[in-house]
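2024-03-11 09:14:02 INFO worker-7 job=invfold-0412 stage=load source=structure_tokens
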């Protein structure tokens, strides 16, 4: 198991449907405008990568799509007790939260820096826990 996989938590494997809905709501409350989030989520064909190394490609997703996927997730899993947060956030996160420690993912398979090379939080940064708590509160 890769080091990063241990940080993801076990639920990321089983409960990925509807995550974009949760991320969208939490990131909106954190001050990101909807147009920045629209360019963060990829087309459904690329959601398998779950915001780890692509953004915007083939997107945006409609709000009705977000809602329907979230409803589907609730049907699949009656109650989630945890949601994995890998630390990946929209490209503008480092400038919005300058005291948080971010790294950049690598360029991915030639997609270029506009769609890959995303910022992610240092796993030891307290801000990662703050965002994770927000995600859990939204699910609860």
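2024-03-11 09:14:09 INFO worker-7 stage=emit residues=140
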């Amino acid at each position: 198991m890769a080091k990063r996989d241990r940080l993801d938590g076990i639920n990321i494997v089983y409960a990925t449907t509807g995550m974009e809905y949760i991320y969208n709501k939490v990131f909106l409350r954190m001050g990101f405008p909807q147009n920045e989030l629209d360019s963060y989520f990829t087309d459904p064909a690329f959601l398998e990568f779950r915001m780890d190394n692509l953004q915007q490609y083939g997107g945006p997703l409609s709000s009705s799509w977000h809602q329907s996927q979230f409803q589907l997730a609730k049907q699949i899993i009656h109650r989630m007790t945890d949601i994995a947060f890998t630390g990946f956030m929209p490209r503008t996160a480092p400038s919005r939260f300058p005291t948080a420690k971010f790294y950049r993912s690598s360029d991915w398979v030639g997609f270029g820096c506009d769609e890959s090379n995303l910022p992610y939080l240092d796993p030891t940064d307290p801000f990662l826990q703050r965002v994770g708590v927000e995600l859990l509160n939204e699910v609860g």
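2024-03-11 09:14:09 INFO worker-7 stage=report msg="Helices lie at 3-8, 11-14, 19-29, 34-38, 63-76, 93-96, 126-139."
2024-03-11 09:14:10 INFO worker-7 job finished
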